[in-house]
């Protein structure tokens, strides 16, 4: 199994729970999960290669990989447009699309490849989204994105949402901003980790046919998790752009 802890400093550990042996890179006093970077680079490399091949010789009538990439683009555009609206979705399409593609390919890599069976010196491999560090980082980026969106559009007026319709709701509004990244990160992490563990155990115990149905189910749930994360990220950004008062006006 992987470590179930956040990045931590030697002087001030954020969590001490560790399961198994892991491959670390040391940067000053910071321990980095080397296996997460390795698998993340694999995912990023796959996305870059697919993008380059799909756009290498574009045709007016798309075929093959170009057709697939255009379908993926239209699918992501529909997600962003449905959540953000016609006026706002174009500015946030790259962010929402990047989230969806990275999570989708990361999840599928964990469902198709038994990463945990592949051992490296001092550790083991797993899908990037099967590590709490990755999912927390993606959730925090989403939080920064919707804070930025709201502050950029409405300035200091963005913070009025914390006291609308009454200042009594201020603690609840602040708590909501903490629960959003927590729910995003732990939902994704828990589902992907559970799927990887089930597949890894079945591959070790019954390596031929039994794991296949579970892997197919894992592909489906992995795609759903990517869709849910990207949809919620776009919805949070839309909420920050619109604001409480404007939503009531509509």
TrEMBL record:
<keyword id="KW-0375">Hydrogen ion transport</keyword>
<keyword id="KW-0138">CF(0)</keyword>
<keyword id="KW-0812">Transmembrane</keyword>
<keyword id="KW-0066">ATP synthesis</keyword>
<dbReference type="GO" id="GO:0031676">
    <property type="term" value="C:plasma membrane-derived thylakoid membrane"/>
</dbReference>
<protein>
    <recommendedName>
        <fullName>ATP synthase subunit a</fullName>
    </recommendedName>
</protein>
<keyword id="KW-0793">Thylakoid</keyword>
<dbReference type="GO" id="GO:0045259">
    <property type="term" value="C:proton-transporting ATP synthase complex"/>
</dbReference>
<dbReference type="InterPro" id="IPR045082">
    <property type="entry name" value="ATP_syn_F0_a_bact/chloroplast"/>
</dbReference>
<feature type="transmembrane region" description="Helical">
    <location>
        <begin position="216"/>
        <end position="237"/>
    </location>
</feature>
<keyword id="KW-0472">Membrane</keyword>
<feature type="transmembrane region" description="Helical">
    <location>
        <begin position="188"/>
        <end position="210"/>
    </location>
</feature>
<dbReference type="InterPro" id="IPR000568">
    <property type="entry name" value="ATP_synth_F0_asu"/>
</dbReference>
<dbReference type="InterPro" id="IPR035908">
    <property type="entry name" value="F0_ATP_A_sf"/>
</dbReference>
<comment type="function">
    <text>Key component of the proton channel; it plays a direct role in the translocation of protons across the membrane.</text>
</comment>
<comment type="similarity">
    <text>Belongs to the ATPase A chain family.</text>
</comment>
<keyword id="KW-0813">Transport</keyword>
<dbReference type="InterPro" id="IPR023011">
    <property type="entry name" value="ATP_synth_F0_asu_AS"/>
</dbReference>
<keyword id="KW-1133">Transmembrane helix</keyword>
<dbReference type="GO" id="GO:0046933">
    <property type="term" value="F:proton-transporting ATP synthase activity, rotational mechanism"/>
</dbReference>
<feature type="transmembrane region" description="Helical">
    <location>
        <begin position="132"/>
        <end position="151"/>
    </location>
</feature>
<feature type="transmembrane region" description="Helical">
    <location>
        <begin position="36"/>
        <end position="55"/>
    </location>
</feature>
<dbReference type="Pfam" id="PF00119">
    <property type="entry name" value="ATP-synt_A"/>
</dbReference>
<feature type="transmembrane region" description="Helical">
    <location>
        <begin position="91"/>
        <end position="112"/>
    </location>
</feature>
<keyword id="KW-0406">Ion transport</keyword>
């Amino acid at each position: 199994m992987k470590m179930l802890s956040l990045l931590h400093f030697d002087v001030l550990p954020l969590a001490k729970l560790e399961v198994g042996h892991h491959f670390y890179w040391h940067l000053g006093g910071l321990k980095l999960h080397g296996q997460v970077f390795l698998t993340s680079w694999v995912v990023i490399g796959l996305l870059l290669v697919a993008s380059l091949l799909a756009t290498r010789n574009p045709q007016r009538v798309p075929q093959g990989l170009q057709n697939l990439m255009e379908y993926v683009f239209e699918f992501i555009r529909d997600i962003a447009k449905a959540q953000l609206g016609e006026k706002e979705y174009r500015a946030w399409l790259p962010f929402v699309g990047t989230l969806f593609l990275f999570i989708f390919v990361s999840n599928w890599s964990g469902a198709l490849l038994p990463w945990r069976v592949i051992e490296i010196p001092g550790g083991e491999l797993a899908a990037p989204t099967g590590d709490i560090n990755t999912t927390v980082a993606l959730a925090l980026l989403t939080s920064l994105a919707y804070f930025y969106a709201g502050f950029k559009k409405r300035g200091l007026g963005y913070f009025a949402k914390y006291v609308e319709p009454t200042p009594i709701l201020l603690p609840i509004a602040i708590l909501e901003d903490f629960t959003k990244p927590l729910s995003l990160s732990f939902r994704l992490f828990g589902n992907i980790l559970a799927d990887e563990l089930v597949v890894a155990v079945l591959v070790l115990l019954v390596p031929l046919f039994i794991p296949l149905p579970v892997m197919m189910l894992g592909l489906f749930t992995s795609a759903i998790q990517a869709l849910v994360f990207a949809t919620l990220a776009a919805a949070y950004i839309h909420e920050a752009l619109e604001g409480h008062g404007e939503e009531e006006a509509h």
